[in-house]
Amino acid sequence: VSSTMSFAHTGQLSPISNGMDMSCTAADSSTSVSPSASPPLDAMHAHGAASSACADPWAMEYPDSSHLHEIAGSSHSHDDIAWEQDSDDILTVPKLEPLDDDDFCMDDLKEAPLTPVAAGDHLSALDQPKTKRPRGRPRKHPLTPNVATNKITKGRSKTGCLTCRKRKKKCDEAKPRCMNCEKNAVVCEGYPEKQIWKSGKERAEEERMRSHSLPLITMQPIFHGLETVEDRIFWKHYNEHLSTVLTVEGEHKNAFKDMMIPIAVQHQGLMHSILSLASKHIDFETPYGINVMRNNPTTTVEALRERSVYHHDQARLKFYDDVEFSHAEPSPEYKTLVSARYGQMLCFLLEALAEGNPRGEHRLHLSAYRNLISSSPPDDSAFFSFIAEFFQYHIFADELIHSAGSLEPRQQSKEGAPAPHIHPPRLLGVADGLLEYLSQITAIRNTIRSNMLAQIDPVVDYVSLYRAAEIDAAIRDWTPRWPPGDSRDRVGILYKQMLWIYLVRTIYPPSSSASPSMASSTISLHLVHSSPSLGRPTSSAVNTPPQSASTSCASSPRLSGFGPGPIPNLQAGRQHPRPELPPRKNSSLDSSNTAVASQAGSSRANSPPPIRQPPQHDPRITVAIDESLAILDTFKPSDPSQTLLLLPCFVIGTACFTPSQQDRVRAAIKTIKGYTGLRNTDRVMDVLEEIWRLMAKGQWAVVWDWPGVARGLGLDFIPA
After folding, report:
1. Contact between residue 93 and residue 22 where contact means Cβ atoms under 8 Å apart
2. What would the pLDDT profile of 35-45 be if each residue is shown by its tens digit?
3. Which alpha helices (H) appear in 178-286, and where do they start and end?
4. pLDDT tens-digit profile of 626-684?
5. Would the pTM count as exceeding 0.70?
6. Distance (Å, rounded) from C-alpha 104 to C-alpha 101?
7. Are 615 and 514 a contacting pair, CB within 8 Å?
8. Do 43 and 1 form a contact (C-beta atoms < 8 A)?
9. Nearest-angstrom CA–CA distance, 480 and 482
10. Angle between helices 516-530 and 434-454 (to 10 degrees)
11. Contact assessment for residue 610 and residue 472, using Cβ atoms and an 8 Å cutoff
């Protein structure tokens, strides 16, 4: 009851009072609550009387009972508490656990010392803003605050197996094979070798130590002549590029590799010749040459040119040594020596074509071939067929220009070894005999040219006409015999049309009595063949007299073939030359005439150039040229037949009178140069441009004799 009172008075239970009440209750059972007890206040009085009788040192003195009656009465009146007696109403007494330490005393407890705080930390703590209380009703069970921790983000693992890294799968890194690959039935490629990171200085030091530790060896060249980086560049260019464009054969069947390379391995002179030819063929200003230099940064253009000169000199030196050696007694090496000599002459010929040599050096090698083939032909029939076809093709093409200027006997008329049976043919016109007609037409043209120079009438005699009729019938009966799908079949048709144009233009020369311009052209033809100079005249070296309005611009004596020597009196060719009029003095019409002339000049500049055709022009030639140009347009730039198209482009271009036809020939020759890389195409364009310039001037006799035009320009080359 005292505990209850204590709770009612203080609002909490007192463990001391509760202990005292329990002891007194145990001692005196008479004070137990009876069923007929009065309300709790009466029990409190009874218990107070009994407690006074207990002799306990923990006894406490409570207030007067009268005062308690007042408190109880007031609470009873306010709360109106009614007690109902029931068997279940038992006063609940809290259980107190006995203390283990009887000597425990609250006074022995001391306050823990405070943690010393520095003055700076105290000020920084004061400066920090207070955290705001979150809005809303506080949680019954507040969340634990998120403590900011330095979380270490694990990067992408680089120690997994190679298979899982390629598949971008997580690897368990089991050894020797990961279980992920085993589970997915994938071949485990294993783990990459662990590499320790090292700085640049450490790597350089290791490389230096390794170079000092390794023994030095000298790698000797596998072939004689291939000693430097430049030599290997030339060797690669010959095998992968040059040998392909020199023949129409496929890449897998090429005589320049299958026949020339095995001989070059055994003969140093031929190896030097091949490398010299390859070095002269590379043009370092083209995209191909720039790419070669980019792929070989260890060399320079100057080093390549120096090495080219070295191979050129060594090739000539070895060739002359072999010529002296051949006069001695035959040896077991004689067979290889003869084949290598033919190979070197072929390389020398191609080198002149690759450089575009205008001095006629190729003719030395053609003459050397004719002399050697008659006395010492190669023993190998296949090699003999390859060499004979290639040289004979260029002999036919060389007659187009050389035979007109030199007036020497034709090379074909000289005695020589019988032509071998060429099988399989690689070029066109030699094995099938088509270029034989080209040589015969050239002979007719030389005869007509001689008659024109000697002023023989008629210039085309009966013998020439009869031979021309036979050649025309033979050309019509000729048919190409190439397998289906071979592009040389179309090239054969183009050669056939070329020969017909060449024949018609030969037997129909311009007449000197057709117009006044013809007389001037005939004089020019005499001057071209009689002038010792081969240079092209300049405009300042020609004295041009005034012309009348009725005189054609084609009669201008500004002709090609003049040299720096004295200019002949061309007025002698005119029957009645007009006297030179003195210049007019001050005239009122000078200004008006000048204005009219300037207006006329500007209108002529805007108008297209006039198309000039020779008198008595045969329209059949125009049709044949258009058909030939249409065939030329069908060849792709990468077609191997581009090697054979320069000769027909040159012959057909000499008969192109319209600017549109001339432009198509220019485009075709540009494509040929892009494929072959031979710079003799530039010499062909030089001659054609001069011929077309003379066409615009109307000098038809000089245009007809285009070999003389080439000689007047100082160009002696093979147009093939």
Report:
1. yes
2. 444 444 444 44
3. 179-183, 200-213, 229-237, 243-245, 255-258, 260-266, 268-281
4. 999 999 999 999 999 999 999 999 999 999 999 999 999 999 999 999 999 999 999 99
5. no
6. 6
7. yes
8. yes
9. 6
10. 100
11. no
